[in-house]
Amino acid sequence: MVTNDYITMNGNGFSKMEEEFIKRHHKHDVKENQCSSSLVKHIKAPVHLVWSLVRRFDQPQKYKPFVSRCVVQGDLQIGSIREVNVKSGLPATTSTERLEYLDDNEHILSMTIVGGDHRLKNYSSIVTVHPKVIDGRPGTLVIESFVVDVPDGNTKDETCYFVEAVIKCNLKSLADVSERLAVQDHTELIERM
């Protein structure tokens, strides 16, 4: 049921619609010693369900497999800071992240990493969620883009490969969780009839 259609090359392999969404919402000011990429995932679950998971800046562990714990001080709003504990397996244990933008109408979330014990410096990402018909049913197109400094001792390709691998895991998990919830919602609806 899960689609495995990640596309990561800027401008190459994107549909016209995906290219338009990227041009409109995924603008990053990429400097010389940085890398950037956009990834696309099609999910067989309705937009409202997928967005309900993505928008929870305070609960990334609902679908991000490398997050073990998240604490946000105060109300969830632009400028909120979250302290994330990372599960073993990644070269980090904590990450401090700021919510830069959250738009429930357009389904856009943007965040930056502002601290932590990892090598992702000047990391910024944008996630957008769009309705898309998949196999004749309501589905979702998720686009996640990022920009990050290339650490000393690494190449742009190595850095992009690492970040893309983490994002692909997160998007696969988002698809798994969303599609499972969509099936449960559909099953519960049938059982109530």
UniProtKB/TrEMBL annotation:
Q: Which GO terms describe its molecular function?
A: abscisic acid binding; protein phosphatase inhibitor activity; signaling receptor activity
Q: Which domain of life is it from?
A: Eukaryota
Q: Per its UniProt record, what SUPFAM superfamilies does this chain match?
A: Bet v1-like
Q: What Gene Ontology biological process does one annotation of this record name?
A: abscisic acid-activated signaling pathway
Identify the keywords attached in UniProt to this record, alphabetized.
Answer: Abscisic acid signaling pathway, Cytoplasm, Disulfide bond, Nucleus, Protein phosphatase inhibitor, Receptor
UniProt-annotated location(s):
Cytoplasm; Nucleus
This protein's major location comes to cytoplasm
**Gene3D superfamilies (alphabetical):** 3.30.530.20
Q: Which InterPro entries would you find in this protein's record?
A: Plant_def-hormone_signal, Polyketide_cyclase/dehydratase, START-like_dom_sf
What do the Gene Ontology cellular component annotations say?
cytoplasm; nucleus
Q: Which family does it belong to?
A: Belongs to the PYR/PYL/RCAR abscisic acid intracellular receptor family.
**What protein name is recorded for this chain?**
Abscisic acid receptor PYL8-like
The scientific name of the source species is Durio zibethinus (Durian)
